[in-house]
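Aim 2 progress. For TonB-dependent receptor, the working sequence is reproduced below.
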Amino acid sequence: MKNKTLTRNGVLLASSALVAAFGAPSLALAQAAAPVAAVALSNELPADPESPDQVSQTPATQLGDIVVLGRNIPEPSRQSAEVAAFLTSEDLQRTGDSTAAAALTRVTGLSIVEGRFVYVRGLGERYSSALLNGSPLPSPEPLQRVVPLDLFPSSILAGVTVQKSYSPNYPGEFGGGVIDLRTVDAPAEPFLTFKAGVGGNTETTARDNLVYYGSDTDWTGFDDETRKVPGQIAQAFRLGKQINLANFSASEVQAMGRSLVNAPLRLMQRQQTPVDGSLELAGGFRTPTEIGDLGVIAVAGYDNSWRTRQAIQEEGQFQGDDLVPVSTFDVESNQNDVRLNFLGGLSLTTDDHEVKWTNLYVRTTTKRARTSAGPDFDAGGSVIRNDYTEWFVRQLFTSQLASEHYFGADGEWKLDWRAAYAKTSRDAPYESRFQYGVDAQDRFIHNVQGNQISFSELDDEIWSGGVDLAYKLPMAAGREATISVGASTLDNTRSAERHDLQFEAVNGLTDSQRRARIDYLFSDYNINPWTLQLREIAGSNGANAYDADLKVNAVYAMVDAEFVPTVRTTFGVRFEDGQQSVTPRDLFGGTSSYEATEIEEQYWLPSFTATWNFTEDQQLRFGASKTIGRPQFRELAPQAYTDPESDRVFIGNPYLTDTEILNLDARWEWYFGRQQFVTAGVFYKKLDKPVEAVIVDVGNQRQQTFLNAPEATVMGVEAEVKKYFEFADQAAFISNKRWLVQANYTWSDSDVSVGEDDTVITLGGGGRPEQASFFIQDGSRLQGQSEHVANLQLGWEDDTARSQATFILNYVSERITARGAGVGTAREPDYLQEPGAVLDFVYRKDFTVKGRDLGFALELRNLLGTDFEEYQEKGNKIRINQYDLGQSASVSLTARF
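Predicted structure tokens for this construct:
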């Protein structure tokens, strides 16, 4: 992109290239220079990406008609006007993480939950927003409006920006931060690569694990329409007619029952689990045309992996002052995950204009077989077994058209605009559960009342657009001010519905039928008006379907200027008009017993950040802002949903309101070399009415719901260091390498304030205020907040051997996943999860065979064998969910053409 008057960053890169080209001792100049800031440049200069450490500050130097005066900014985190962290393509390659979610765990103050959702500074995913090239994304998750970041393979990413202090050019839903994923762009030089990999896990690979057949094409991530909703049942769904004898004849109901696929989707077996495998193809080029440089980029990938869990799940109740387990289940599950992705991009670039069209398609399929067995308190302590066969398909498609344009004699005007459409979906056909009891000989027999077959769909789409106009105003002594204004719009709609079917034993089952194999029991022979008869359960009163919508229109104004030498200030304000609604819908055309929830709010969201560059390589930052957090659609919908990950039932609360957040940040930064720095900072957040999850007892069932806590605060300290070492006088193994030490640590503390007069509004209370202390303990931590988050990377780079190796350690301390059930003094302790320490090792080596460049990679994950553990503790430890993760290994080979 041509810019006739270079910005400070461009000048400093150019000045570094000049110094390298003319042989000037850059480091000595950097130490001796006085701070200056003036620019006069008449010729374009190529930047040298291989130049040594950049010059921090240079005195006036005249070379012909070129005069460069300025201060070098060697790191993107220093270039940024805000407190931010950056993952570069080099970082993504070094850690070898396969998805954006895994890669972001390496960033200071970030942790990952369920392998999908990123928590920034201990605040849940609802307090952060995810963007793709600056455009918002919808979510295929029933429980979240935030897109799960495991959808994005790292191969499509050029980098990730995590901005932790707010600026008004970003959406106002900003608590922990904003995560902006940047996709790869057309390269300067043409390339084509092919990568293949295999891997395995100690808990899964080559072991006999549960499976069910499904269809012949499940390995592709697509089935062969085996799971397609049968025609007569699909028509009943469309017409809104509940499947029962009141709406259909006995013969029609019999035909519907027999149309459901039987043995391939119901019969579980054991089979040796194969190795994981992956393929990836990427290529791109840039070529000049009459109207500009045309760029093309394409990345396609396929990944097939398996994961087995042998878990223990318990429920506890008080006996005296102690919790004791009253239900204990042994859970075994085996799931096959298939991911397909394709990124395609076109760009057209001239000196002053650039237009990009980026398209991304991702499809992830989870095929799971699982069983859960043990004494169940709700069944009087009798042993109950539940078998599940499941198929979940998540899809994301997004198409974005974006451009940037420079105008004016010196390019002082810049216009950016973007328009995007994104759609996600989640399809779960034939989600089946079959239940068993035990007979007098302790043999499992069918408990037909516990069978259920569900079909659910969720569609979530976003139309969005935005425009930004910036003007660079020259100031005294070569400084400048950038004045920006902009507007954006977002329309996010969601439709979700679920149909639950059940076979009813009309006259009970015979002993032989109760002991029959699952596919024999539900064979066509037994589906008739006097043995097993299909019916549709629930779905009325808005319990199984809802429509939701969020519209946000916003404008902002912002100034970024150095009014005082060495002090950069950024300030502005954003106005947002948001309208959010969730409308429960009766599947059968009746009137829902739940009223629509509507939240209409307007907010002025100011922000201010000052950066003082008090020495040539150090600076101080201070930031203050106001932001918001909105309840997620599912949290507002009074619809029960069972999460297959935790086997926990969730139900929304239509009385939730927005959260308002005050953010304060301060950070010291020292950049002492290229890609080398030390930073330390503090942060403070005050949340008015934060959304918290609580466990409630509904009859004999425990459900997780949501409420607005009165108030909470979060404060913490962050520190990060990155340093390279070289030892020239040591042995060859040592001296040939550039050694890396990179570490970050975040300590944070949160406090939920609950006064005697504070109230909350819950679904169970029917909208009436209830005493907040019944549900939340004063002084408790926020849900999801960990006191300690730390990362350590130790490794080397060897240019001679063309190799790189890194040990990667990630540690996250315990966090609350949900509030304990009960009220007042009878409330149980909170649910806790302890992620612990995870150690990985990644080794990469490039080599040449017959003139062909090849790359080898070895990745070893979870070397410490850390387990997953969620629990309650009071007198006894109740294992809510506990299983071994195992150690994983993978190897890959990349060919470059």
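Residues 97 and 103 are 5 Å apart (CA to CA). This observation will guide construct design in the next reporting period.
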